[in-house]
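Here is the promised in-class demo. Please do not try to memorize the tokens; focus on the logic of going from shape to residues.
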């Protein structure tokens, strides 16, 4: 079972991914953390020193490493992978994920995203220079540009007010889909 979690930054991909991996008994991985470990520098440093294009190339390559996992990797029997917000928007990535696993869009309103990201802007290269009072507008516009890619997911989980019952229902949907 290979599950790719997609959605805008701040929607809860890592949090949901960790819980989902435990519920399904498969390992969890975070694409950005995997890139950082491989590059031996933070995503912010990669953006600053090498640029966004170089980061996106690393991201696509790392995605394919997961999706093409062989028997010598810890992910050979499946995984839950939290992708970066822009991962599905890069050429060929959404198609690759759809062809190799289950893609789940974690959806949250622009206002909810902006509220979650307000205090974490310095850790987000795309948001670092956005003034606080313009964050909601920026997120709404950026999300609208990415929505076409996110909508291609086979399942959607709304994370606005995610509670235990909704998460349990979601796990049942994932299990049913992967049979």
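The designed amino acids, position by position:
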């Amino acid at each position: 079972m290979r599950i790719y979690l997609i959605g805008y930054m701040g929607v809860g991909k890592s949090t949901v991914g960790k819980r989902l991996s435990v519920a399904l008994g498969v390992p969890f991985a975070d694409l950005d953390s995997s890139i950082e470990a491989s590059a031996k520098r933070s995503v912010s440093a990669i953006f600053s020193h090498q640029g966004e294009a170089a980061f996106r190339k690393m991201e696509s390559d790392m995605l394919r490493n997961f999706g093409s996992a062989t028997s010598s990797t810890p992910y050979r029997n499946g995984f839950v992978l939290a992708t970066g917000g822009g991962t599905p928007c890069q050429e060929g990535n959404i198609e690759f994920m759809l062809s190799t696993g289950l893609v789940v869009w974690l959806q949250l309103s622009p206002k909810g995203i902006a509220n979650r990201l307000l205090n974490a802007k310095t850790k987000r290269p795309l948001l670092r220079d956005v003034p606080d009072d313009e964050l909601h507008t920026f997120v709404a516009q950026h999300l609208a540009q990415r929505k076409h890619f996110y909508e291609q997911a086979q399942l959607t989980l709304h994370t606005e007010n995610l509670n235990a019952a909704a998460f349990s229902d979601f796990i049942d949907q994932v299990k049913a889909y992967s049979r």
